[in-house]
Every structure is written in structure tokens, then in C-alpha cells.
């Protein structure tokens, strides 16, 4: 996922990037226009499309998920029920590669997604059709750069997230071998979905606890922390004093003793 | 004699006639210092302290030790318009809006870490070579005092900027104070001028950090150095070196030139770290607010072992007479450190009690020749190391894919099991090193050259050691356990009480040794 974005962003500065984007935008505009002008017919198409999406989603679910989550997503001995978790949870879990779970370890890990965007959407539509739940997040609706406030986001992050994810969102250990992962390089969409679905040991942050606008501020702060250059020199992993102490004992004392040995053997 | 020289001579004469300075200077400037890299560890500590004084003074010009609430509007964008304490805001100001401020802060903090590293390394050198023995017990005590104060000084400095990590540290310190039975909650109330976090704590610890403790440091360091001066430096054993002399270089000019140069090297390395390695990036931590806490909150390394002990303690509390005694904080936070530091301070006296050795020592021990002491030291180090590892358990867990609970159980068991194992292994190791020395003296150095004997057998040619080397390897004393009679000459039962029995056992353990080859043994081999 992120590597894909990295690959894409490598082309950002390409000299053809601007013209290419223009072409894409124009085609997009044209399509939107033609779709909009055919609105009544499109509605019907959308409904049938949706039901076929759900059927497709159910088909994938029976293949890839039902062994753990049950034939009707009702849950089983090893995995929870998915009824009511909503499209957002599926989009997050499958989009970040956590599901289908590879092994029954402490915690489903982020890995290369097994399903592509279309299949994920189908799965999400299927699970959402079972019972209402949080909608998957449309990335274009997250204009955090415009609507967010970094300072507010930082305060909210320290209040709600830092105890698990570390002050600089570098991740941290929880009990029993679980851990809160680093948030560096996570898609804004998945940050938002993580907050509204509360994956695994992470609590759910409803819109009452943290309003949608505040969620955007948090995302903006995380992105700012990610792109912040290391201001005082090498960052040493941003994990606090442990690496600092290690460096003092190894490089610091090592250099000093090396020179002391040299001095003591010198000028004899 | 030129005119200039004449004037200089007159001035010198004038001063000397009134102060007797010439004689004093001559005596002291020609004072001899032995030369060994491990004798420079204390110097590193001294120079780091000077660096701390210089950079710390720079910081005081802008640092505002107050917990008054202000709204930040400096140049660090992610915190603009956030309300915070004045001390946090002024630290941000030093970092981003004072020219060279961040560099000074970083040098100050790196110097603090290296100061403590050097103190500990110096202490280990003194311990493992037996330099603390009579007549240097006082200086050992002063050293333990400096170490303790260094930990406190560093902790207070770490707490000054009032960021999220340091606030968490103060909170733990408060919990430790509160855990003192009966008076704890009053003491905490007194220290914080009310309920935590209060409004006075930062300004109080500021005075202690920049005035009181540095003053005590200066006084103690002065006495420490004067004692070294007066008692003369110890030296490693070797030909020509005895308990009665010091072999080395005169203070002036050789030693002074080296020491002066070394100061700049220490400064250079600290400045290098300050320039290129970020330390305590408080702007990332955010301001302290009670109720916030970050994953991976850590103290600096010299407090890490204490934090590790507290983290390892299982929850254990008793309620009695309306008071709660939190053993889970009291034991790791106060009782164990108390035992450790008291034991360390008293060790010179304990050892001389165990061995019955009341003589002066100016020649150092090679660590292998004092197996019991070396093993005790290694054992204490192992204990500290296990505790220190647990202090970083969350970081270790995430970076090495281990579980916090696993590390915690390793610590809980390891604190009791690892030190004794280390003791036994170290002692065995020392004894086998002694045995190797003995072999070396008796049979010489292996040359790697093979010799074919007439009947076809191969033997390796051994080269006899130089007389100097043999001396160095055999000069150490041969220990004998204390002869403690069961009943002394007055008919008083001596070694039969518990204390006497313990002493007897300790002295036997301490005397364990591979005997140095005797002259007859050496002769016998030669005739071979
Ligand atoms: C004796 C002269 C000293 C003075 C005048 C002094 C002054 C200061 C001041 C004003 C601060 C807060 C400003 C800031 O953090 O940017 C500070 C922080 C600190 N001091 Fe000192 N200090 C002295 C000695 C020491 C010593 C001997 C140690 C350690 C053993 C030490 C360790 C620290 C630490 C760890 C901090 C936190 C630094 C940071 O946040 O980056 N200081 N000191």
C-alpha cells in the first residue's frame, strides 16, 4: 500500500506529471458530467450494481473469511461477529492487510493487502448489508490540510493516543505482547477509520469523544510529525532517553576511552 | 639577563619572600602522576562537570523556572497557541529562538549523560583495582556521594523543562515520596507546596539544580581532588613500583599539557554529540498536563535501573491503622536503592573486616588477583543491568518483538538468579586467569614455533618471560584466611558467634587463590 504510494509519489516531480494530471482531471470531469446528465438511469444502475457488489462480496467472504468469521459473519470460536462492524472496519482491516488474518498470533499485523480495492469494497458492502455500521471513509472528503489545526491535533493526540502510540506516534508496547503500531506512513483514510472502528485493543473514538473536525486535526498533526525534519541532529528513533543513554555509553565513552588510551601511550 | 627577565625575577622574588610560594610550587609542580588510561576516567567526569557549568549558565539566561500558564507563540508551529507552563515555553524559546540555544541545551544534556557515564566508569575502575583500600576510604565515600548527587542533579535538570516525559518522571518521584510510611504524604505535600503538580515545584528544584547542588559538587570535588593530591595517586604494579613510591610523570609540564589537551577533547566530543545527535527533543513530547502520558516514557539512563525496579514490582499493598503502605513502590523505590548505596559506601570497611587487612595500599590489584571482590562487583553490575533492561522494557519489546510481560518475568526471576550465577562464573574466571598466569611464569610464552624431537615428537617452543613480566605476574600478595581462634587469649569466645562465623567464612572465600609459583618450583622447572 504505502510502497505503492511511494512509487507514485516518485513520479510527482516528473516533467510530464502536470500535463498528465491535467489530462486525467479532464477525463474525470467529462465522465462526471456525462454521468450526472444521465442521472435517472444511473440510479437504477447503481442499485443493481450495489446488489451485485454485495453478492460478489459474499462470494469472496465465503472463500476467504467464513472459516473464521462464520458462514454468515456471525462469528465463531476464534473470530468475532462482523454484524454491525460496518464497512469502515472491513475497509480498514482488509485495506491494511490485517484481514484475512495470516496466523492466530497475538495481533493481526499490517501486511500487503490480499484483495484489491474493488474486492475490498465488495466485502465492505456485504458486511455493511448485514447491519448498519460506520461507513467506509472517502479519502477525498478528508481535507485535513485545509480543515485541521496542528496544535489542537497535537493536544488531542497527547490526550487520547500517545499513551499507546508514543508521543511522536512511533508506536509502543502494550501488555501481553500486543503493541500499538507506528503511525508513520499510514494513509489518512485508515487513520480516520481506525479512530471510528477501534481495531483490536484500540478503543473506539466516537464523534462525541472526538468530533470529525478534531479527527482531521489529529491526522494533520500526525502528518506534520511525520514530515518534521529532525531538528536537533540525528533523531535516534524518537523513542526517548533509551537510545540516548545507549549512545552515551557506546559512542561517547568509547571515543573518550579510545583517546585516553592513545594519550596514555603517547609522550612516553 | 635582559631587562624583562630582571623584572620578572624581581616580581617572583617579591611574591616568594612574602608567601613562600616558590618552595610550594616547586614541590607541587614536580609532583609525579602515574600514567594509565583508566586513571583518566575521573578526569572525564571533572571536565564534563565544567562543561555543565558553562552550558548551564548559558541556559539560565533565558530559562524561566515558573509554572505560570502561558500561551506559546514562538516559532515552533505545531505548538503555537497551545497553553503551557512558562518553563516549557522558555525551553522552546531557548531551542528555537535563541541563537545557539538548541546546541547549548543538547551539549548540556549530553554532558550530563557523559558526566554520569564517566562517574560510573571511574567508580568501577576504583572498585575493581582495590583503589578504595586504606588510606583512601574517605575518597571512596565522597565518590559515592558525588554519584548519588549526580543522579539527583540529573533528575532535577531533566524535570526542569516541564515536558510530558519529565512531568511523568516527577509524578513517579512523588509516588515514591508518598510511599514513605506515615510521613510520606506530608513530605510530598511539603515538597510540592500542596497537591501535585502545584505551582512551586519547578522553581524550587531550579534553585537546587543550579545553585545548591552545583555548590555542593564544587566543594566535594575540591576535597576529592585535594585528597588525591595529598595521598598521591595509586599505581598499577610493576617493576620498580612499590607501596612507597609513585612512578610517572611530573605534573608540570607533561601531565598538565596532557590534561589540558584532554579537556578540549572531552569538550569536542560532547559538542560533536550536541551538534549531530538530538537529545531530549521536548517539542515532540509536548507540555506536561497531568492525565496525559506517553508510551515509552523513560527517565535518563542513570535513573533507568530505579524505574526498572519499580516496574518489576508486583502490586503489593497493606492497609494498617488508616495508612496504606505501598510495598510495590517502597521496596524498589527506596529500600533496595538504600541497601545498594549503603552497601557500596561501606564496602571498603566491610572488605577490611572480612580480610582483617588494616595496612595501607598504594599498589593496585589486578582484578583477577582479587577474585572475590571482582565477582562481587560483577554480581552487583549484573543486578543493575537486569534492572536497567527492565527500565526500557517497552522500547525493547517493540524493537525486538518481545512481550513486555516476558521481559518483566525475566526481570523478576533474573534479579535473583543472574547475580549469583555471574558471581560464580566471574570467580571461576579469575581463578583460571590466575592459573594461566602461573603457567606463563613457569613455562614461558608459547611462541607458536614447533620443534621436532629426535624421536619424532613435536613440542612447542616456550620462550621464558622477561624478568619484568615475571615480576608483574607474581608480585601480588599471597592471601591467607584470617586465623580466627575459637576462643581468644582471654577465654572469650571469638569466632563462634554468628558474626564470627560469618567473618571466618567470608575471609576464607576472600582468600581463595591460585598460589603464585615459588622460587623452588621455578628452579625445578628450569632444571627440567
Ligand atoms: C552546575 C551548573 C548547572 C547549571 C547552571 C544548570 C542549568 C540548567 C538549566 C537552566 C536547565 C533547564 C534548561 C533546559 O533544559 O534547556 C538545565 C537542564 C538540565 N540540566 Fe543542568 N545545570 C547545571 C548542572 C547540571 C549537572 C551537573 C547536570 C547532571 C548531572 C545537569 C543536568 C541537566 C539536565 C539533564 C537538564 C535537562 C536538559 C534538557 O532538557 O535538555 N545540569 N540545567
Brief summary:
The complex is a heterodimer of chains A (268) and B (528). By secondary structure, chain A is mainly α. Helix content of chain A is 57%, strand content 1%.
Verbal overview:
- The complex is a heterodimer of chains A (268) and B (528).
- Chain A has twelve helices and two strands, in the order H-H-H-H-H-H-H-H-H-E-E-H-H-H.
- Chain A has two domains: 16-136, Cytochrome Bc1 Complex, Chain D, domain 2; 138-229, Cytochrome c-like domain (Cytochrome Bc1 Complex, Chain D, domain 2, Orthogonal Bundle), CATH 1.10.760.
- With 268 residues, chain A is mainly alpha-helical.
- Chain A has a two-stranded antiparallel sheet with strand order 1-2.
- Helix content of chain A is 57%, strand content 1%.
- Chain B is mainly alpha-helical.
- Chain B has a domain at 30-340: Cytochrome Bc1 Complex, Chain C (Up-down Bundle), CATH 1.20.810.
- Helices cover 63% and strands 6% of the residues of chain B.
- Chain B has a two-stranded antiparallel sheet with strand order 1-4.
- In chain B, a hairpin with a 2-residue loop joins strand 5 (317-320) and strand 6.
- Chains A and B meet through helix 8, helix 9, strand 1, strand 2 and helix 11 of A and helix 5, helix 10, helix 11, helix 12 and helix 15 of B.
- Bound molecules: protoporphyrin IX containing FE.
- The site of protoporphyrin IX containing FE (HEM) has 27 residues of chain B, from helix 3, helix 4, helix 5, helix 6 and helix 9.
Amino acid at each position: 500500500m504505502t510502497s505503492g504510494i511511494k512509487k507514485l509519489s516518485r513520479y510527482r516531480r516528473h516533467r510530464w506529471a502536470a500535463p498528465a494530471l491535467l489530462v486525467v482531471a479532464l477525463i474525470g470531469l467529462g465522465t462526471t458530467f456525462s454521468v450526472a446528465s444521465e442521472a435517472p438511469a444511473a440510479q437504477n444502475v447503481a442499485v443493481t450494481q450495489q446488489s451485485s457488489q454485495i453478492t460478489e462480496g459474499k462470494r469472496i467472504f465465503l472463500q476467504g473469511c467464513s472459516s473464521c468469521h462464520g458462514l454468515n459473519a456471525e462469528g465463531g470460536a476464534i473470530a468475532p461477529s462482523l454484524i454491525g462492524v460496518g464497512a469502515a472496519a472491513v475497509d480498514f482491516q482488509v485495506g491494511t492487510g490485517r484481514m484475512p488474518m495470516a496466523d492466530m498470533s497475538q495481533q493481526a499485523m499490517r501486511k500487503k493487502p490480499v484483495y484489491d480495492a474493488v474486492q475490498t469494497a465488495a466485502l465492505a458492502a456485504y458486511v455493511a448489508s448485514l447491519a448498519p455500521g460506520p461507513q467506509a471513509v472517502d479519502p477525498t472528503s478528508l481535507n485535513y490540510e485545509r480543515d485541521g489545526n496542528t496544535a489542537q491535533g497535537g493536544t488531542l493526540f497527547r490526550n487520547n493516543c500517545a499513551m499507546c502510540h508514543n508521543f511522536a506516534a512511533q508506536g509502543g508496547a502494550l501488555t501481553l505482547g500486543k503493541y500499538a503500531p507506528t503511525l508513520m506512513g499510514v494513509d489518512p483514510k485508515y487513520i480516520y477509520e481506525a479512530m471510528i472502528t477501534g481495531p483490536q485493543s484500540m478503543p473506539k473514538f466516537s464523534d462525541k469523544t472526538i468530533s470529525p473536525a478534531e479527527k482531521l486535526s489529529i491526522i494533520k498533526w500526525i502528518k506534520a510529525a511525520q514530515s518534521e525534519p529532525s531538528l536537533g541532529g540525528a533523531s535516534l528513533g524518537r523513542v526517548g532517553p533509551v537510545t540516548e543513554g545507549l549512545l552515551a555509553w557506546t559512542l561517547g565513552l568509547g571515543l573518550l576511552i579510545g583517546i585516553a588510551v592513545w594519550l596514555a601511550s603517547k609522550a612516553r | 639577563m635582559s631587562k624583562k627577565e630582571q623584572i620578572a625575577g624581581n616580581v617572583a622574588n617579591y611574591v616568594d619572600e612574602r608567601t613562600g610560594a616558590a618552595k610550594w610550587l616547586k614541590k607541587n609542580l614536580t609532583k609525579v602522576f602515574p600514567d594509565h588510561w583508566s586513571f583518566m576516567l575521573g578526569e572525564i567526569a571533572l571536565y564534563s562537570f565544567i562543561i555543565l557549568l558553562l552550558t548551564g549558565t548559558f541556559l539560565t539566561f533565558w530559562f524561566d523556572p515558573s509554572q505560570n500558564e502561558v500561551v506559546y507563540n514562538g516559532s515552533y508551529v505545531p505548538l503555537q497557541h497551545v497553553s503551557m507552563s512558562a518553563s516549557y515555553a522558555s525551553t522552546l524559546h531557548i531551542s528555537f529562538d535563541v541563537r545557539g540555544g538548541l546546541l547549548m541545551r543538547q551539549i548540556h544534556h549530553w554532558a550530563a549523560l557523559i558526566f554520569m557515564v564517566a562517574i560510573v566508569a571511574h567508580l568501577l575502575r576504583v572498585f575493581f583495582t582495590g583503589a578504595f583500600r586504606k588510606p583512601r576510604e574517605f575518597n571512596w565515600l565522597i565518590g559515592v556521594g558525588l554519584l548519588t548527587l549526580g543522579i539527583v542533579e540529573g533528575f532535577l535538570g531533566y524535570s526542569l523543562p516541564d515536558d510530558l516525559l519529565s512531568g511523568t518522571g516527577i509524578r513517579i518521584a512523588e509516588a515514591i515520596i508518598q510511599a514513605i510510611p506515615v510521613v510520606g504524604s506530608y513530605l510530598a505535600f511539603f515538597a510540592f507546596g500542596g497537591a501535585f503538580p502545584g505551582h512551586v515545584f519547578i522553581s524550587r528544584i531550579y534553585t537546587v539544580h543550579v545553585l545548591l547542588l552545583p555548590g555542593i559538587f564544587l566543594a566535594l570535588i575540591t576535597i576529592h581532588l585535594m585528597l588525591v593530591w595529598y595521598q598521591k595517586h595509586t599505581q598499577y604494579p610493576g617493576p620498580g613500583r612499590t607501596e612507597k613510591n609513585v612512578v610517572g610523570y611530573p605534573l608540570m609540564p607533561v601531565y598538565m599539557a596532557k590534561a589540558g589537551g584532554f579537556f578540549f577533547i572531552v569538550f569536542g566530543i560532547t559538542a560533536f554529540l550536541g551538534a549531530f545527535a538530538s537529545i531530549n527533543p521536548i517539542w515532540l513530547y509536548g507540555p506536561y498536563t497531568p492525565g496525559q502520558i506517553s508510551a515509552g516514557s523513560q527517565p535518563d539512563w542513570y535513573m533507568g535501573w530505579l524505574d526498572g525496579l519499580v516496574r518489576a514490582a508486583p502490586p503489593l499493598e497493606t492497609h494498617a491503622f488508616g495508612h496504606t503502605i505501598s510495598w510495590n513502590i517502597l521496596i524498589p523505590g527506596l529500600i533496595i536503592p538504600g541497601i545498594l548505596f549503603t552497601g557500596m559506601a561501606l564496602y571498603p570497611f566491610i572488605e577490611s573486616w572480612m580480610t582483617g587487612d588494616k595496612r595501607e595500599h598504594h599498589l593496585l590489584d589486578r582484578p583477577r588477583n582479587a577474585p572475590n571482590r571482582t565477582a562481587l562487583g560483577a554480581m552487583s553490575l549484573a543486578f543493575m543491568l537486569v534492572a536497567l533492561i527492565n527500565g526500557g522494557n517497552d522500547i525493547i519489546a517493540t524493537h525486538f518483538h518481545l512481550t513486555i510481560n516476558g521481559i518483566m518475568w525475566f526481570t523478576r526471576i533474573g534479579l535473583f538468579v543472574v547475580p549469583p550465577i555471574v558471581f560464580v562464573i566471574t570467580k571461576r574466571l579469575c581463578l583460571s586467569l590466575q592459573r594461566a598466569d602461573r603457567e606463563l611464569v613457569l613455562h614461558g610464552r608459547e611462541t607458536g614455533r614447533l620443534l621436532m624431537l629426535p624421536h619424532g615428537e613435536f613440542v612447542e617452543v616456550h620462550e621464558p618471560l622477561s624478568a619484568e613480566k615475571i615480576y608483574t605476574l607474581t608480585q601480588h600478595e599471597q592471601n591467607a584466611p584470617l586465623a580466627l581462634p575459637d576462643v581468644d587469649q582471654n577465654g572469650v569466645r571469638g569466632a563462634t558467634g554468628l558474626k564470627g562465623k560469618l567473618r571466618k567464612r567470608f575471609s576464607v572465600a576472600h582468600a581463595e587463590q591460585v598460589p603464585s609459583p615459588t622460587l623452588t618450583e621455578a628452579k625445578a622447572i628450569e632444571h627440567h
